[in-house]
Fold this protein.
Amino acid sequence: MAGRFVAPKVLFYIGGLLIIMGAIFTLAMSGIGIMSWSMFRMGIFAGALGIMGLLFGLLVLVAASMIGKRHSSNELWLVIALVASIMSMLDGGGFIIGAILAFIGSIIGLIEIDVR
């Protein structure tokens, strides 16, 4: 039982941190856009995308910490991480690689549930 869901957790942590880093980058760029009047609307839009990216990244990190705790909720948290990784692509998905890592981690976790 100790080695259960190790690969998905590692991929979720790395992917979630990359998604959050990408969202922070988007927020920084939106701040530059808000500073100039001609790019104000684009800056607001990018800021909203950055906040969504932060939320999806945090959701992936929460899912990483929750899988393996209760047997009955593992599948739910894996599906939540799968959806969050797909939705984080709206913001850029943590330089794309973060969303891909979280997506692969959730697929591995779902396969691991079916095998056992």
